[in-house]
Design goal:
about 375 residues; mainly beta; Immunoglobulin-like; 3 domains; five-stranded mixed β-sheet; four-stranded antiparallel β-sheet; disordered N terminus
Length: about 375
């Protein structure tokens, strides 16, 4: 039977499977060879969670974070990109990763660039864990997970996976944000935090709507509590970076529709908070405390009454503001009271005399503003 011999002098026609409009298509060069139309495909969900992670070379037992969806879900889309992306570096046979289910860890499966898993309310997808067998490629993974309503959602608490995702070796600007244009009113802001690894690659994305708490839980550690039991722990290289990151994150959250985080903006915060003092306080000058005349605030104390630390804060200070944190609650001001020339602090003032009053307040970046006042107490 006669047949046509391909021209061996020409580059072989490239065969690809790829998405096109609302379909997956198989092409050979310019020719469409096969097609599956996704038109009309609808998969119901109650909640969804988007995350990203980097599998370093030889990484093992890395969990896919399902976030607040629990450990069994109904939809999972995974896209893997092998780094570097230069096609001249690409070795097709090495571009794969391994995975296994939490309920069947002995059975190792493999995937290439794309995987979609679906379930239903009675047959859900268990927690997945990844291995990267390559010593050449890092793998950048994007994940879209979704779940139907589930009354008994739980988070894996045993083994090598906990409801806490930990990211280490971070700088203050390892936390950046996206950029979003808000039309009404028009402004350039953001909608999510992006955690960068030491190479500058995004390893996790946290929508602002999922964040419930941000707290400093160690000298170099910030813990972000999400709207479930899951927590994200950020371990910084130094306490300075930790404090600066705390300031940056809270700054953008306080007005995210008009603010965003880049690597260099806002810059490092080295400005301390500022006191707003109550005006028209009675003031005298006295001598003998220092080498010259000293400014002293006078106060007439009713016999039998006392002044504690908060009383003094309210008497002298009307407010505290910071360039990054905005308004700081006066309860964050720490007062210290000394009888003049005494080194032992006291808890309150109940007798006439001259007192040293020290106030100290710091912002989230740990910039401190200390203030010393002299106060002369007389009987009313």
């Amino acid at each position: 039977m006669p047949y046509i011999q391909s021209n061996m002098l020409l580059t072989p026609t490239e065969k690809l499977i790829k998405p096109y409009e609302c379909s997956f298509i198989a092409i050979e060069g310019p020719n469409l060879k096969g097609k599956i139309d996704l038109q009309g495909l609808e998969i119901k969900y109650e909640s969804f969670y988007v995350s990203q992670l980097i599998l370093n070379e030889k990484a093992k037992d890395q969990p896919i974070v399902y976030g607040f969806l629990g450990e069994n879900i109904t939809f999972l889309l995974i896209r893997a990109k092998y780094l570097p992306l230069d096609p001249n570096w690409a070795i097709e046979t090495e571009q794969y990763i391994q995975y296994y289910y939490a309920d069947d860890p002995a059975r190792i499966r493999t995937m290439g660039q794309l995987q979609i898993l679906t379930g239903n309310s009675t047959n859900r997808i268990p927690q997945l864990f990844f291995n990267n067998p390559s010593s050449i490629y890092k793998v950048y993974i994007e994940i879209l997970a979704a779940n139907l309503a589930q009354s008994d959602i739980t988070v894996q608490q045993t083994g090598h996976y906990t409801p806490t995702s930990i990211f280490g070796s971070l700088y203050h600007n390892s936390i950046i944000s996206d950029e979003v244009n808000y039309v009404m009113p028009y402004s350039v802001g953001s909608s999510e935090l992006q955690i960068l690894d030491p190479t500058g690659s995004t390893v996790m994305v946290i929508p602002y709507t999922n964040i419930r708490t941000i707290s400093k839980t160690g000298e170099n550690i910030l813990t972000i509590g999400l709207d479930t039991e899951e927590k994200v722990k950020l371990d910084f290289l130094t306490e300075f970076y930790c404090n600066q990151a705390n300031s940056r994150i809270n700054w953008v959250l306080n007005d995210y529709k008009n603010r965003k985080l880049t690597l260099n903006d806002p810059p490092v915060d080295d400005q301390p908070p500022v006191y707003q003092m109550n005006i028209d306080l009675p003031i005298d000058y006295i001598t003998g405390i220092t080498s010259g005349s000293t400014l002293v605030y006078t106060y007439d104390l009713v016999s039998g009454s006392t002044l504690n630390g908060m009383d003094l804060i309210n008497y002298f200070i009307s407010g505290v503001t910071d360039n990054m944190d905005g308004i700081i609650n006066k309860e964050n001001v720490i007062p210290t009271i000394f009888i003049i020339n005494d080194l032992v602090p006291i808890n309150f003032i109940s007798q006439p005399g001259i007192y040293n009053i020290y106030f100290q307040v710091k912002d989230l970046a740990a910039n401190v503003n200390g203030m010393q006042l002299y106060m002369s107490i007389e009987w009313a």
